């Protein structure tokens, strides 16, 4: 019996929630493992799903990363602030690295790159890109934001479609809201970054931000856009989660990150990436913090789930 329990505890310590859930001796442990697996898989739609066997403090932390499934759902979770979600992303990236699950790790890095411009915008918006709370200035006279077919706008056709949709999705039914987040919200994040940082024909869309904070945002948003083009993020296209069939080795990941740090080290924000720390990709937490303009450290949410499972196993 002790040897079986020791094996299950070892699985819990390795965050092998899917395997442990299938072997769990009780329904309570299985329920907690399902919760842990959702976190590890970044299944943000279901972070708020009922999980009575999970301690309330862990459920509360997960709900802060949850993406609302209707326009009026409360609390707003990741639409209120992306900082808890990025803390979880960092924990997932580290966990996948230590488990040598490099394809899911690169997928998590890719997700982080897609929404990073919204993290940069959060101090100015007062939220994390909630379509129910966009500032009126985005649609001020002379703004091209959300105007489809305007050839003076630097947005791609898909970005124009996404920005047009985000200005009206808050009055759509729940199905339309979910479809928007599945397909277009990340494009809105990139489009906002273009507006403030790289647009060749600026319109009035960013005039609601005063010049001094806009200059700061410009640097943070440009760094976010640069991160999306780094060798590390491009590794996704060489992995099964992308468009190819190869899996990057640890050495390839670290080499890509070193080249990415060099590419990012062009301003005070990007220079944060060259910080040496004990994170598997040294400097990544510092980079996210610099883009956010606020400290972001890896969460301990998944570790907390693991500890709770171990406690339950020791009681059986």
TrEMBL record:
Domain of life the protein comes from: Bacteria
Protein name as it appears in the record: Uncharacterized protein
Organism the protein comes from: Nonomuraea spiralis
Taxon lineage: Bacteria, Bacillati, Actinomycetota, Actinomycetes, Streptosporangiales
């Amino acid at each position: 019996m002790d040897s079986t329990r020791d094996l299950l505890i070892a699985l819990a310590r390795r965050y092998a929630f899917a395997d442990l859930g299938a072997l769990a001796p009780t329904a309570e442990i299985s329920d907690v493992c399902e919760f842990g697996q959702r976190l590890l898989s970044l299944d943000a739609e279901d972070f708020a799903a009922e999980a009575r066997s999970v301690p309330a403090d862990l459920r509360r932390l997960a709900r802060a990363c949850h993406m609302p499934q209707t326009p009026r759902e409360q609390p707003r979770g990741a639409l209120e602030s992306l900082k808890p979600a990025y803390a979880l992303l960092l924990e997932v990236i580290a966990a996948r690295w230590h488990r040598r699950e490099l394809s899911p790790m690169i997928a998590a890095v890719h997700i982080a790159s897609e929404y990073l411009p919204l993290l940069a915008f959060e101090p100015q918006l007062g939220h994390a890109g909630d379509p129910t709370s966009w500032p009126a200035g985005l649609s001020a006279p002379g703004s091209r934001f959300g105007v489809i077919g305007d050839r003076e706008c630097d947005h791609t056709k898909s970005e124009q479609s996404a920005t047009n949709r985000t200005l009206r999705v808050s009055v759509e039914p729940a199905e339309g809201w979910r479809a928007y987040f599945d397909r277009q919200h990340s494009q809105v994040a990139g489009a906002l970054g273009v507006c403030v940082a790289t647009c060749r024909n600026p319109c009035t869309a960013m005039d609601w931000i005063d010049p001094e904070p806009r200059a700061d945002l410009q640097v943070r948003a440009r760094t976010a856009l640069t991160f999306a083009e780094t060798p590390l993020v491009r590794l996704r296209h060489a992995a099964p989660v992308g468009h190819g069939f190869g899996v990057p080795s640890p050495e390839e990941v670290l080499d890509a990150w070193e080249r990415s740090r060099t590419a990012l080290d062009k301003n005070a924000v990007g220079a944060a990436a060259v910080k040496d720390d004990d994170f598997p990709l040294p400097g990544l937490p510092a980079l996210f913090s610099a883009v956010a303009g606020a400290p972001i450290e890896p969460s301990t949410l998944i570790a907390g789930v693991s500890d709770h499972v171990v406690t339950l196993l020791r009681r059986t």
